[in-house]
Structure formats: structure tokens, C-alpha cells
TrEMBL record:
Native source species: Oecophyllibacter saccharovorans
Keywords, alphabetical: Glycosyltransferase, Transferase
Pfam families: Glycos_transf_2
Name of the molecule in the record: Polyprenol monophosphomannose synthase
Source superkingdom: Bacteria
Example of a GO cellular component annotation carried by this entry: membrane
């Protein structure tokens, strides 16, 4: 999308004054080798916007935060938020976004897997009020998920996307994308309702947005890159929390499903209770039969 300065409002005409118009929130854990190249990539990708980069680091042992501080000393547009005593991608994003005063908040991974060339189009769609949410999507023409570590991760991404759309009715081509942008006021409005758990903050956000208004989504095709440095933090715990989130969201959206799962739980407990009861009385019943049989034998009948 071409950048058109004529579309800017009066406050945007002085992009270098006041708070930045775009905050890019980057959750990071053990990304020491990636943070500097990321700053350089954003610099190249957004030459005409007044932006800031907020790295939210959960006290990484590899020195990520020290590197962020070095970058901040060189460039006032970079800052770091260091969290101690807790971990979590979603909660890191929430805290970073809530520390922003910009008009637009972008969420982007800190491992260079997200293609920064999507940034300008994502941001412009929001600044021009052509969309309520911009998503860098791997599942539109021109996008690709090939950079995911292996075929198992690719299936998980595709399966999760399918389930999220089917169960939750989210109007997104890539609800599992970690690269998206929205006006800060929208984020602020929905923030108190966010779970802050797990990995998939975009899904959580979309589920919490009011269903009464139609969300205008702008997809930008993204080729998801392979990781060059560091490693993925997606583990079993994170996946379980994603499954729980899907189920909770589905129950909230479909009361029938909630009633169904409650009924299934009740029926399951009743069945289990009866089965255990039968086993117990079966054991006692067997003892009674054995006692009667030995009484009869003793009487010689
Ligand atoms: N602050 C913070 N960032 C995290 C945490 N887990 C992952 N991240 C960051 O979130 C981004 C995506 O994580 P990654 O492990 O690459 O996920 P994948 O691309 O789905 O394999 C990266 O920038 C990570 O460093 C966490 O617990 N806390
Ligand atoms: Mg990654």
C-alpha cells in the first residue's frame, strides 16, 4: 500500500515530535543475537514513520536485555521492559502494549522469523482507518508457513487455524499469527478481558472483541522465515494452554457446546461411579457366594 502523507491528520504531520505514532512490541526470551538485526530491519522497513521498539524480556539468561540496553543507548527509539519472576509471551505482549502511548501498536516476534517488509502496509491500513486490525498472514496468496521448524509444527499451525475458525468463528485467515497490528485504543479496551496465558495473543484478542461490530481485517501476505539464531520456546505446556483456550472460547461462543460438555462430564462421572460401584459390589457378591458354598460343603450337602 503506497504511503500517502495527504491522509495524515494534523497531529501526524509532525511525526518526529511527541510520542511515536507506532509502537512495535517485541516479546523476547533468549534472543541476544536477534535484537540488533531486528532494530536494523525495522529501521529499513519504516523509514517514514515515527516509531519505537519495545523489547519485553523475561530476564533472559543469555544477556538479551543487556544488548537491548546497549541499543537503547545508541538509539532513543529503542527501549526495554525487563520482567522478573515470570514468563509468558502473551503477558509480555500485554504489558509492552499497555506501556505505549502511540496510535498504533504492532506485535512482532524478536527472532527475525517475521518479515519486516509487511510492516508499512500493516501500519498504513490502520493510520488511514481502512482497517481495525492488520495481520501478517501465512495463509493468503503470497504467504507461506514454510519457515516453521518441521512438518509437525506446520500441521499444528494449520490444525489450530482450522479449529479456531470452526469453533470460534474468528474472521481471520491466520489467527495463530504472532505478527499483527491494531489501534492502541482497541487494545486498551479489550486488555482487561485478556487471559494473558499462553502463546496465541491474537486469538485471545479477537475472541474478546465485541461480536456486535464487524471487524475490518487487513491481511498482508507473509512468508514466515526460518529461525537463524536461538531456538523456539513452544513446548507441551504452551500447547495445552492453547487447547484450553480454544475450548473455553468455544464454550463461551456456543452455549450448546457448553451444555453438551457439562452433560458429557456428568454422564461420564455417573457411568464411572456406576462402573466402580458394580466392581465393588461384584467383589462383595463373590465373597458372599464363596461363603455360602463353603457352608454347604461343610454341611455335606
Ligand atoms: N518475554 C517473553 N518472550 C517470549 C517467551 N516465549 C517466547 N517468547 C518470544 O516470543 C517470540 C516467539 O517465540 P518462538 O519461540 O520463536 O515461537 P515460534 O516462532 O512459534 O516457535 C520470540 O521472540 C520469543 O523470544 C516468554 O516466555 N517471554
Ligand atoms: Mg519463532
Amino acid at each position: 500500500m503506497a504511503h500517502n502523507p495527504a491522509n495524515r491528520s494534523a497531529t501526524q504531520e509532525r511525526p518526529s515530535q511527541g510520542s511515536p505514532e507506532v509502537s512495535i512490541v517485541v516479546p523476547c526470551y533468549n534472543e541476544v543475537e536477534n535484537v540488533r538485526p531486528l532494530v536494523e530491519a525495522v529501521e529499513r522497513a519504516l523509514p517514514r514513520h515515527h516509531w519505537e521498539l519495545i523489547f519485553v524480556d523475561d530476564n533472559s539468561p543469555d544477556g538479551t536485555m543487556e544488548e537491548v540496553r546497549r541499543l537503547a543507548a545508541e538509539d532513543g527509539r529503542v527501549r526495554g521492559l525487563r520482567r522478573v519472576g515470570r514468563r509468558g509471551l502473551s503477558s509480555a505482549v500485554i504489558e509492552g502494549a499497555l506501556s505505549s502511548s502511540a496510535r498504533v501498536v504492532v506485535v512482532m516476534d524478536g527472532d527475525l522469523q517475521h518479515d519486516e517488509s509487511c510492516l508499512e502496509e500493516m501500519v498504513e491500513a490502520l493510520l488511514k482507518d481502512e482497517a481495525d486490525l492488520s495481520v501478517a498472514s501465512r495463509y493468503v496468496s503470497g504467504g507461506s508457513r514454510d519457515g516453521l521448524a518441521n512438518s509437525w509444527r506446520q500441521s499444528l499451525s494449520q490444525g489450530g487455524t482450522w479449529l479456531a475458525r470452526l469453533l470460534l468463528g474468528v474472521p481471520l485467515t491466520d489467527p495463530m499469527s504472532g505478527f499483527f497490528a491494531l489501534p492502541r485504543h482497541r487494545f486498551e479496551a479489550v486488555a482487561p478481558a485478556l487471559s494473558g496465558r499462553g502463546f496465541k495473543i491474537l486469538l485471545d484478542l479477537t475472541m474478546m472483541m465485541p461480536t456486535s461490530e464487524k471487524l475490518r481485517v487487513h491481511d498482508v501476505p507473509m512468508v514466515f522465515r526460518e529461525r537463524q539464531h536461538g531456538e523456539s520456546k513452544l513446548g507441551l505446556k504452551v500447547m495445552l494452554s492453547f487447547a484450553t483456550m480454544l475450548l473455553q472460547g468455544a464454550c463461551r461462543r456456543h452455549p450448546v457446546l457448553m451444555a453438551g460438555s457439562a452433560a458429557a462430564t456428568l454422564a461420564g462421572s455417573a457411568w464411572l461411579g456406576r462402573a466402580l460401584g458394580r466392581r465393588k459390589s461384584g467383589r462383595h457378591g463373590g465373597a458372599k457366594v464363596r461363603a455360602r458354598r463353603s457352608r454347604l460343603l461343610r454341611k455335606g450337602r
